[in-house]
Records
---
Amino acid sequence: MVKASNRQKEAYQQLLQKHTPSRPIFRNLVLAFLVGGAITTIGQGVLNFFVSQGLSPKDAATPTAGVMIFLGALLTGLGVYDKIGKFAGMGSALPITGFANSIVSPALEFKREGFVLGVGARMFQVAGPVIVYGVVSSLVVSVLHILVKGV
Amino acid sequence: MPGQGLREGKEPRYQLGLQPKGFTDGKKIGKQTVVFHNRPVVLATASVAGPKEGKGPLGRYYDIVKEDTLFGERTWEKAEARLLEEAANLAVKKANLKTQEVDYLLAGDLLNQLIASNLAAREISIPFLGLYGACATMSEALTLAAVLVDGRYGKYALAAASSHHDSAERQYRYPTEMGNQRPPTAQWTVTGAGAALVGASGEGPVITCATVGTVVDIGLKDPNDMGSAMAPAAAETIWQHFQDTGRKPEDYDLIATGDLASVGKGIALDLLKKSGFHLGRNYTDCGVMVYDPSQDVQAGASGCGCSAIVFAGYLMKELAEGRIQRLLLVATGALLSPTSYQQGESIPCIAHAVAVENQRSVKGGAGIG
């Protein structure tokens, strides 16, 4: 046999249902909530610290992001963040620390190919699509905003 | 086709070694099976494993267990090459030979352009044939080593395969330090290498026959569920092996598939059952043997190194100590590339079966002419 026919594929899918373990969705949700909540609570603590030092809440956001990015990068470099990620899933991928992890981890991985073709070229391998579609969707939203509400 | 409970209807059955002589002089029987009448011998095997594998249930069976995953090398690729080189050299040494005496090195791995094998072969001066069979490489290499030795194209052939968790991760999936969650069907690539020295004569179990698999593609596309994708290929090859040789599941003390892991193993059993072959306690899968479930490996082990270290480390010792007399090793491979799955291709899969038997069993056993 070379490739399965559609009928065979369907029959196989039925067989698979019996054997494929289901994802522990409830456990994943709880862990993501707890770990994601913990990370963002730390972020809030950092923000409050900057506010207590006299910055306005709006101005404090930038240094807070900087601190959280630093923490994400540091934990990636120490080999800890991948272990948190395995456990917490989206809970550690979604906050800005996860974004830092997605940039630092390829930078570390491809350092062996040198600073130009390795670190430089591959650093945004994971985060690149996020940036591209982030920019594209913000553009779409801005255009819609202009169309609906005017400039 | 396995998805439908394999093929129906009967095909002519042959008894091993009883095929009338023709173009192949009885060296090929049935549709896909070769018989080795000169009985090439597995003279020695060697296995080198990583630290995680060393902590697994089979840890004490490996010749060398590494303490870390880089062993002083600068890159994962070089580290994998070192695994392969050490396994190859150790197998030659255990057979009391020198590498200059070995006629062929048949080796493969999972990396692009077989770079781990190429780097290892650079250090070992044995005439080298690189093989790509994904995780089915060990039985592919054993088959071809047996063909070369049985055909008297050389006295000694070294069959070897390697994989490394981190080199595979960076090539197929994500950077190793990236924090992402693995689904329960995912498998953990083994860090390890196995080598088997096949010789024309001597002490040790013999390779009696091998069934070369066809590519089977059941249409699955998820690289995080390769056990399900490969199970039909394994079932197909095992089915074909029984058709070609006239043997039955109970003729084997152990039938071991390569790396179907916990998900694929159950599927393969079901598929074979549907086509009338009931494999019972004499069936296992190397992918469920390497790690303990507590080691956080989801469905189990995978990689060329999986069947290589289980065969070279554990199964060969079981044969040597007589706990099993007749083994069918069916290494399984998912022949995907990162490019092919990104382009939406389904995963082509393959399995090759090699029968390894103690010499005692060959002389008196069933189904041998």
Note: DSSP finds eight helices and no strands in chain A.
---
Amino acid sequence: MSKNKTTAANESPAELAADVLDERLIRHEGLGGAVRAFFQRVRGGDLGSLPVVIGLVLIWAIFQILNQNFLSSNNLVDLTMQSAATGTIAIGVVLVLLIAQIDLSIGSISGLAAAILAVGMTQLGWPIWLAVIVALLAAIAIGLLYGILYTRFGVPTFVITLAGLLAVLGLQLKILGPNGSINLPYESWIVQLGTSMFFPPWAAYALAIIAALGMFFSDWFRSRRRVRAGLTGNSVTLMFIKAGLLLALLLVAVWYLATTRGVGVMFALFVAFVVIMNFFLTRTRWGRAVYAVGGNVEAARRAGIKVNRIVISVLMLGTLFAAIGGLFATGRLTAATLSSGGGDTNLVAIAAAVIGGTSLFGGRGSAYSALLGIFVIQSISNGLSLLNLDSSIRYMITGAVLLLAVIIDALSRRSRATHGQA
Amino acid sequence: MTMEAPLAEQPTLQREPVLSLRGISKNFGAVQALTDVDMDIFAGEVVAIVGDNGAGKSTLVKILAGVHGPDAGTIMFDGRRVTIPSPAAARALGLAIVFQDLSLCDNLDVVSNLFLGREVSDFTLNEEEMEKHSWTLLRQLSAKIPSVRIAVASLSGGQRQTVAIARSLIGDPQVVILDEPTAALGVAQTAEVLNLIENLRERGLGVVLISHNMADVQAVADRVVVLRLGRNNGDFRIPEVSYEEIISAITGATDNAVTRRATAHGTHEGSDS
């Protein structure tokens, strides 16, 4: 009986691509189809980054109404530069959350990186690159230690990194010494990077065009490979529209920012990190393994994935990005202090990842949630300080937004379940 | 089913078994989980392993899966003596195991699940090749899955089991071991999985089916191996054995003349009334 079925399936018409043979599949073709498919996805609870984008637009609109300076080019440049440091830390948080773990010590690690950089540069007379490398290596070593502790002893990362938070903070204070605060020379490139290194407009325009072309060709080549493999390709019109929209958005953004200072190199580096991590997460075996470990660690183990290696590599990347973010923050503040990486750094970075749409339960999220999430948080914080409201209000509002984001996540999870897309 | 009996007999007589266990023993502390278990699996044959809870079925599967090592005994695969130190080694040999609790990643789509841990990749993933291969494989299994780009979570229980079984075929194994594949499935879905098992046999694979469900066992298996308290307690050819005989081998009723008499008496009474 089953033999007959097999041959029947093999004899199905060859003109149709392999992935659309099933007659039950609802097909969406062309531009209209893409729009319909999008609305269907949203109704089914697959919100993606839609709530964040809508939230961001709302926040910007409200602050612009309250204060005309909010959307000024100058303030937006500030916003991008403020976002870069904590946003970079948030990339690491996204990675760690994807494997359903958490790193609470990212703030301390960013502070440690700041301390190592400052002491190395000013007191030990190291060249900046050496200080940077030592700071990053220290962070990677801590991540490795976390990973070994977790995989060897099975202690939850929540506890390991809570211990790390204190221990690394102690290390930071020890390195900074009795002074507690070290100023960096203003001419050093790390400070320049944090404060006044901007792309000339032509370079920024060129980057925007390269990004849009890159997306178009990546889509185009993928579509061609699919057709060659006997699957459906994507419509070229759609690819044009997608790349065109991105290009228009980037060009307008660059033009508007360039009316004052322009696009900060530090911010561009942050965005580049996001794009690179997104590539590794979606297009490599390592990334697939990260999602698998976050989704069902036992299944991943049985599938032959070396779970321990994945966990250790992710924890190391988490601390590495925390350190890079810490270095960015030091450059921006032009000093390493006792409170570098202290205060709300930890929670803002974790909140950014969650607000951006990365699930706290692992396996769901993308590198872009770091970018979107930090924009939301920094917009609120920036807007409230423009309104001369102090940090008490800022904390309360940021807390409320975080809660809202988690509620949206929970609701969309429920909707996914009822629409069979969990 | 009777038509399949001669088909299954041929390989048993002429060919070497593809997987052969001799004198497998395993203890966990003071508990002797398996004692001197022998088993042969031939290509193109479905062998059911049945037994009560605690009979040692899961332990046997775990030994074959490379989760536990046996304390004594030999495993011959394809005529060679082998050891299975790890799950990866079992896979490398050509032994594929579909575990009871599915072990799929709900957050990943069908293609990602099928190729999990053995993605086709040259630095970047070759999604197109994997998707194409997925469709070919699912069609060969007559699987009814509308799209391979939807998350596994949105599939029905039978479809998920299909994906789990299809995944075991990715590395071209010679023996597929299915641990309770129809547990928690509905009637239609169970039938789908049974069709799939017959399909595996037609592809010339040795299939080991671990099941509590005698109806399933009698429907698809060619041979049934009974384990009781960690020992072999019967090896029957399905067409030649009755439901009652299997049950008594499982429960140990054959050892006990009184029970057997009571059963015989019971059936006699039943036919009288």
Note: Chain A has two domains: 51-197+264-407, 204-252.
---
Amino acid sequence: MRAMVIDDSRAMRMILKRIVSKLDFEALEAGDGREALDLLATLDEVPELALIDWNMPNMNGLEFVTNVRADPRLREMTLVMVTTESEQSQIVRALAAGAHEYVIKPFTEGAMIEKLALLGLVPTGANS
Amino acid sequence: MSVEVEVNENDLAEMVEQVWESYLDPEGISPLIPTYDENQPSEVHSSVSITGSWTGHIVYASSTSAARRAAAAFLAMEMDEVSEEDLSDVLGELANIVGGNVKAMLPPGALLSLPQVVLAPETTARFPHSERISGVYGVWDGEPVSISMWQSRGDNKEGAE
């Protein structure tokens, strides 16, 4: 399986890549939503998962989610927002736009794995 | 119109603890030890600005050594492998994380800027018409680290100087 990590912070991309790699995902990365869409357009197979920051230059995470949901080719992707935007109204906006889950920074590795397990992307108990 | 912020030092301390637990000290062996010294020195700093229902800045400041250590922890590398770009990236993300969590505690309508990083002491920072209202000051493995909140005294005055 493949996971796309989309964050303008290289440090955060590293952390997320470490986590998904431990879970046997092949990690792809992009520095913003536009770069992620461009990368997706080049791929024959769509990644199963995208972990998406909200506040990014060029194209933010919410715009990326909206674009993905408008593209039938990408409809199977599981979209998880990973962001400091933690107000209820923002979470509702992201979920309404088509995100499946929402993880608030800072997060522990265990918390992230639990979220992915809830989505059925990793076996329950992968965190132990 | 800017409101009086209700984020206090305990709230900030809790956010900082979460950052340490999540990224900088997941094993729980090297916490940030409080000094309560708001005048402790720094060599680098990063900030995010919040505008809207509250206007001000969140500033992360530390020694270069502490910043290098933070970058090494984030990026899973040795301290001597950390580049200036790594330092900037991690300092920016730290300010972004704390700033985002502060914003969540404010009344609706606040906007968070992208982070700014300055590889120079916090004393070189210029936040016109702002005053420090809260902060967490400590040492991490003997090196100074602080996270502070600066509130603008009035709307439409920033940048007037």
Note: Chain B touches chain A at residues 18-19, 21-23, 26, 71, 74-76, 85-86, 89-90, 92-93, 96-97, 99-101, 103-104, 108, 112, 114 (CB under 8 Å).
